[in-house]
Amino acid sequence: MKLGLERIERLLSALGSPHHRVPCVLIAGTNGKGSTAALLAAIAHASGKRTGLYTSPHLEDVEERLRIDGAAIDRGHLGDLLGEVVDAAAAGGFSPPTYFEALTAAAFLYFARAGVELSVLEVGLGGRLDATNVSSPALSVITAIGFDHEENLGNTLTLIAGEKAGIARAGRPLLTYTVGEPEVRMALEVAARERGAELVDCAAEVRLEASPPSSSEPRQRLRLVTPNHRYEIVTQMLGAHQRPNVVLAVRAAETLSDLGLLDLGIADVERGIERCRWPGRLESIPLEGGRTVLLDGAHNLQGAESLAAYLDAVGGDFDLLYGALAGKRAESMLPLLAQRVCEITLTEPPSPRALGAATVAGFLAGRQPPPRMVPEVAMALDCALHEAALPDRALLDSPRHLLVCGSLYLVGEVRRRLRENFGRPEAAVSLSTG
What is the pLDDT of residues 135-172, one digit of tens each? Predict the structure, then answer.
């Protein structure tokens, strides 16, 4: 990883500057930026606009990151584009692009050549120095801000917010949603003022009502009243933390409509959001015998807090399969979730940065029953599912469910294993986001 824009700008110039040929929206944030991007792209597609979506990371296959009208890029096509990017760097005498720079350049090429009319770009890390920030967004969006990647972005919310706000553009809207976060709001106001952007806090201009959540209903229903319209929303994006993301996507779509970049109707918004799928984020996978597997990345403290709030809201008995990467505050996340589950199995995500299961177990010292440590993911999943199928307490009148969280690397691997063992869920690369 090499943060900075100089290399990607030189590379894209050598490729004919495809990043300036498609109008775009740029979305940053600590949590929720991928969900918001997927929702906005689905709305734009529902309105009849040929829409590109670039996100990161992927769950199972790298092709998930580049989509047009919800469909992922063909593997061979992506390979050809990446080859072209690497060849252009070599021909120009540039240093080889990083993994993320190469994919970002490939995405710009893909969208420009495919006749995309609008692209929605998710920032990879931070904002100011992220490769996606070479674009010229018609508007920018910042989702929830919390602590993550402090070694790159700073160790205060003010510093992190300032880095995220580097995606703002002079004379263009910067949409956000802040509630009870005065330091974040102040940092965004300062950054917007310095850059000449128009800061719009959607929390202050949208009325939101939500129906009570239920573990038996894999959707949530929302009523939104914006300055433009009233919407009846049904979404498969579960959890209270997704509601601001829905609001941001709707207001971003309305703003694009005001700018003449979308021809938007109420039905387009409602249909796009209902069709949108975003795997690995409170994704409920039904299994035989009334059990479910609930998959959620929850890879930082803010994500773990949102997941804990969801578990409290829906109730039910869960076992936990958990694995995390180094530097992700697992010592704070895991005890928060451990209070809400029965049995715990600790494993190691398929990443060289994975925390050892024994190390993670140290964060639960004294817990009864003690967690099991099964480093290999496939064996850990089998073990956890066996426990979930065998409730061992008289108070339980239904099978326990299984919660899998802590890392998107773990969630992606578990999705593959579930599909091999049970024929579900559908591969993430096959799911349409619109």
Answer: 999 999 999 988 765 666 766 888 899 889 999 999 99
Place of tokens 């330091």: 183
Give every CB contact of residue 307 below 8 A, 6+ residues apart in sequence: 239, 282, 296, 298, 337, 403, 405
Spell out the SS3 assignment of the chain: CCCCCHHHHHHHHHCCCHHHCCCEEEEECCECHHHHHHHHHHHHHHCCCCEEEECCCCCCCHHHHEEECCEECCHHHHHHHHHHHHHHHHHCCCCCCCHHHHHHHHHHHHHHHCCCCEEEEECCCCCCCCHHHHCCCCEEEECECCCCCHHHHCCCHHHHHHHHHHHCCCCCEEEECCCCCHHHHHHHHHHHHHHCCEEEEHHHCCEEEECCCCCCCCCEEEEEECCCCEEEEEECCCCHHHHHHHHHHHHHHHHHHHCCCCCCCHHHHHHHHHHCCCCCCCEEEECHHHCEEEEECCCCHHHHHHHHHHHHHHCCCEEEEECCECCCCHHHHHHHHHCCCCCEEECCCCCCCECCHHHHHHHHCCCCCCCEECCCHHHHHHHHHHHHHCCCCCCCCCCCEEEEECCHHHHHHHHHHHHHHHCCCCCHHHCCCC
Structure tokens at 66: 């580049």
Of how many residues is the chain composed?
434
Distance (Å, rounded) from C-alpha 433 to C-alpha 403? 23
Q: State residue 407's pLDDT score.
A: 96
Q: What is the pLDDT of residue 413?
A: 98
Residue type, 253: A
Q: What is the mean pLDDT of each run of 10 residues along the chain (434 residues)?
A: 86 97 96 96 98 97 98 98 98 95 98 98 92 97 81 77 93 92 89 95 95 78 97 95 97 98 97 96 90 93 94 92 93 95 97 96 94 97 81 54 96 97 95 83
- How many CB atoms are located within 10 Å of the residue 367 CB? 14
Q: Would you state the pLDDT for residue 236? A: 93
**Which pTM was predicted?**
0.94
Contact between residue 234 and residue 273 where contact means Cβ atoms under 8 Å apart? yes
Number of Cβ within 10 Å of residue 359's Cβ equals 16
Q: Which of 103, 136, 129 is nearest to 21 (CA)?
A: 136
Smallest CA-to-CA distance from 390 within 381, 380, 379, 401 is with 401
